[in-house]
Amino acid sequence: MSQISFDQFKTALEAAVQQKSSSYKNVYSLTMRWEKDDTNAARDTEHFQRLLKALDVAPAEELVIQSGDPVYSITFSTAWLNLVGKAAAKPERNLVIFHYAGHGTTRAGSFVFAETSAGTRVINADRSLIQPVTGSDYLSDSNNTDVLIILDCCCAHIATRAPAIQRRTVEILAATSCDTPNARCGPENTFSAKLANEIATRRRQGHKRVDFADVFQSLKGQRVNKVWPTYAMMVGMFSVGLALNGNPTVDIAPMPADYRAILSVNISKDITPDELVDLSRWIRRLPPFAGVFIETILIQPTYHSHYAGSNPEYW
């Protein structure tokens, strides 16, 4: 087992037991498709707008890339960065939701949006959509903007690589997976339609809130037309949560733990016995919802500690 430093271990443990507030002051949404689309993406735009309505969120801006636009990549990047910038400029915690329906494929290892199946005009989604919100050049870790990306197209799972752990959230729900890269289904059975139907059903059932990681889990169980969807937390560790009670601002109370996990941690030699004692005291002072406790501490030539715990947002 490779070693970690004491500071690395404590930082990771603090992140694991943190209960993040999912209170959003503003929700900004953008849905994008191509004018020459032949996948019935306009219908998926309607499904997405219906999803937002069920969440009591304002309708999304609709970006339709025109067939005669000579700078279509710039058109998309400008619209996307303007929306993210609008949210990032505000001091409150805000959420940005992006939806795409149409053709998706790969070029030189990158995930791209394609105007048609021929792929003569493409937008590099890795570079234009994902990198600006997962890197720190445009959105710092201290920024209060979370991002939810819904990709209803072929090869969408390619966009779900290389997650990073930060305080904010960038979450992707993709219609496809490595095993089923093609998103082929009827117009009323697309990934967008399934998402909208799932949230509408939960609203009718009286649910007070929706977490998109949980929604994904339900859809994965349904296995839409034998196509496996993909979920990824690209940045952070907490799924986007929204209310279903008529108010898009929701403070989510800590949930009780559902699972128990046991960890064995090999801490490097630079930790002292006094630091181990301080760490033990710190863990025992954690609030009840954290669900973390010390099982054993073994003092060896390399400090080898065992912890057992559970946390509904992390494990």
Automatic annotation (TrEMBL):
GO terms for biological process: proteolysis. One of its GO terms (molecular function) is cysteine-type endopeptidase activity. InterPro entries: Pept_C14_caspase (IPR011600). Gene3D superfamilies: 3.40.50.1460. Residues 39-165 form the Peptidase C14 caspase domain. It comes from the Eukaryota. This is Peptidase C14 caspase domain-containing protein.
